[in-house]
Design a protein that fits this description.
Layout (H helix, E strand, L loop, with lengths): L1 H31 L5 H20 L4 H9 L14 E2 L1 E4 L1 E3 L8 E3 H13 L3 E2 L2 H8 L9 E8 L2 H14 L3 E6 H5 L9 H10 L2 E7 L5 E3 L6 E3 L6 E2 L4 E2 L2 H23 L5 E3 L15 H10 L4 E5 L9 E2 L10 E5 L9 H11 L6 E3 L7 E5 L1 E4 L4 E4 L6 E6 L8 E8 L5 E10 L2 E7 L4 E7 L2 E8 L9 E9 L2 E6 L2 E6 L10 E7 L7 E11 L7
Parallel strand pairs: 2-6, 3-4, 5-6, 6-7, 7-8, 13-14, 14-16
Antiparallel strand pairs: 1-15, 9-10, 11-12, 17-31, 18-21, 19-20, 20-31, 21-30, 22-27, 22-31, 23-24, 23-30, 24-25, 25-26, 27-28, 28-29
Helix pairs in contact: 1-3, 2-3, 2-6, 4-6, 4-11, 9-10
Length: 536
């Protein structure tokens, strides 16, 4: 009993000493720090609150948590393995209560996401880290990731900063310069706040737009559209912009926000985040918008960021050998700031999207990261069911995390209840770049797409009988060679696959000329690396 009492007294004494030193230290901060304000005090109090809260979340005792909070530096260690790809998260506002918006989450929800990431070993990187990684100039630890915020809002900064500080994390803020630098605002961060953020070392300031973050008239009938996607309507002349006027407006905005932030905040700008994630793809009245916007952005920014749905896109951002020749990179972001995203859901996504290794086997007892390319799929009864919906002729799914696979053979046990064709993808990069074996009712083709240009490399049309019931399809891709295999027999092979398709993931597609009449069930998948073939 006496020993227990002595132990408690010793712990209490240690705590009192810590608190005394803390108070003394704070008195010097108050005296010497010209920026010390009520907001600073609040932020510092929150910092210690979150340090203690995180330490408690990893099951430390209360006293150990307090001791941990008072120690400077990181409270986790980096992974020892190297990253093959980087996830980037995007947030907008952090609120005390839900407002019904799809872009704002609660502060506690953000905190739980950050705590979960920290517990799992994730650590943040900055803009230069990402750029150098994408070019192959810098190696990063596995589970490196980036946190970004859009719009330059006060609530996101003041609520997120103490959490980031407590965890040793950093973030990027994409700013609307006309909103932050032109007059006082209770909603958007000011010039002084942006400077203070940059000086903290926890934040980097980058471009979002100068004044292109609203919806604008794109027709004489009151229709609205995004700034970077559409020709705007000029009411006093009752016409749309010309292509030249559209291009000049886009270039002026991209250049203007960069100049504003570099000249008035004193920061170096290398990144641009498209408002609404729209880089011209959602145009209503100008189909060339995307090409013009991408060209104008690449002329000014090494990194451009977007977010969109999960169709035909791998979740992470990958380094490829060809990247070393590139100057600009198009960075995909995960919309983790949606209130529907819990910490568990985010962590499940990161796990399923993480780069996968070979050999790979899937019997579809659970979802290992399949993504819809278009239409719908579901995993049910130990099968991947890919099926068209109303007014659709095709459906497809790809495996997230398979992007870096190079030389391999994919074998799949499948059934085609409606006897539709089945398309097997290998070396799939995105919907515009892939190699595939097209198994039709009376033909088998080796096909490919590069920058959206599709071509049949080689095909066979004689004596092809499309199987019924369960059967096996396979595709072998090694070097520039492709083989299409049906029930163990090589039906067609080619040695003329372009070098641009030297790596890529796997996927399946089904189609039919009639709407809502296509279905394929993938029952089992095996993928093995090819090491013994001559790939020259």
């Amino acid at each position: 009993m006496n020993t227990s009492i002595k132990k408690i007294k010793a712990q209490f004494t240690i705590l009192v000493v810590f608190l005394f030193l803390f108070v003394v230290g704070m008195s010097f901060i108050v005296r010497d720090n010209p920026y010390f304000t009520g907001t600073y005090i609040t932020g510092l109090a929150q910092y210690f609150k979150y340090r203690i809260s995180y330490a408690r979340s990893i099951n430390e005792t209360w006293l150990a948590s307090v001791s941990h909070a008072l120690k400077p530096g990181s409270i986790y260690t980096f992974s020892s393995s190297e990253a093959e790809a980087i996830p980037v998260l995007v947030y907008h506002g952090l609120l005390d209560k839900h407002d019904g918006s799809k872009i704002n989450i609660l502060v506690d929800e953000f905190k739980e996401q950050m705590f979960a990431l920290k517990r799992a070993g994730y650590e943040t990187i900055g803009m230069d880290d990402l750029y150098q990684f994408m070019r192959g100039e810098k190696k990063l630890f596995d589970k490196s990731f980036m946190i970004t915020f859009d719009d330059g809002r006060k609530d996101s900064y003041y609520e997120a900063d103490p959490i980031l500080n407590a965890l040793g994390y950093k973030a990027i803020m994409f700013v609307i310069s006309d909103y932050s630098l032109r007059g006082e605002s209770s909603y958007y961060l000011s010039r002084e706040e942006l400077r203070r953020m940059e000086e903290s070392g926890r934040w980097e300031i980058e471009s979002h737009t100068k004044n292109g973050h609203s919806e604008y008239d794109i027709s004489p009938y009151g229709e609205k559209g995004h700034f970077f996607s559409n020709k705007l309507y000029i009411p006093n002349e009752d016409r749309l912009e010309t292509e030249e006027e559209f291009t000049a407006r886009v270039e002026d905005d991209l250049r203007g926000v960069k100049d504003d932030l570099e000249n008035e905040v004193g920061v170096r700008i290398i990144g641009f985040a498209f408002p609404f994630g729209d880089f011209g793809k959602d145009s209503f009245n100008f189909r060339d918008a995307q090409e013009i916007v991408r060209k104008a952005t690449d002329a000014l920014y090494p990194l451009s960021f977007y977010q969109t749905d999960f169709r035909s896109k791998f979740t992470f951002n990958y380094f490829e050998e060809t990247n070393s020749k590139k100057e600009n990179f198009f960075i995909r972001r995960i919309d983790a700031g949606n209130p529907e995203w819990s910490a568990d859901r985010l962590m499940a996504l990161l796990e399923s999207a993480h780069p996968k290794s070979l050999p790979y086997h899937d019997a579809f007892s659970r979802d290992n990261g399949w993504i819809t390319a278009w239409s719908n799929f579901k995993i049910k009864d130990n099968g991947l069911i890919i099926k068209t919906g109303n007014e659709e002729t095709g459906a497809a799914a790809i495996l997230d995390g398979s992007f870096l696979w190079r030389d391999y053979v994919l074998r799949a046990r499948v059934s085609s209840p409606r006897e539709n064709g089945i398309y097997v993808w290998a070396r799939f990069k995105d919907e515009h770049n892939w190699a595939g074996c097209n198994f039709g009712k009376n033909f088998v083709h080796v096909e490919r797409a590069i920058q959206g240009e599709k071509r049949v490399i080689k095909g066979i049309r004689d004596n092809i009988e499309y199987p019924v019931g369960d059967f096996e399809v396979a595709m072998k891709a090694y070097g520039r060679n492709v083989e299409c295999i049906l029930n163990g027999e090589v039906i067609v092979r080619s040695s003329f696959l372009e070098e641009e398709l030297s790596n890529g993931g796997i996927g399946f597609k089904t189609w039919d000329e009639r709407e809502n009449n296509s279905e394929v069930i993938i029952k089992e998948v095996h993928v093995e690396e090819i090491k013994s073939e001559n790939n020259d």
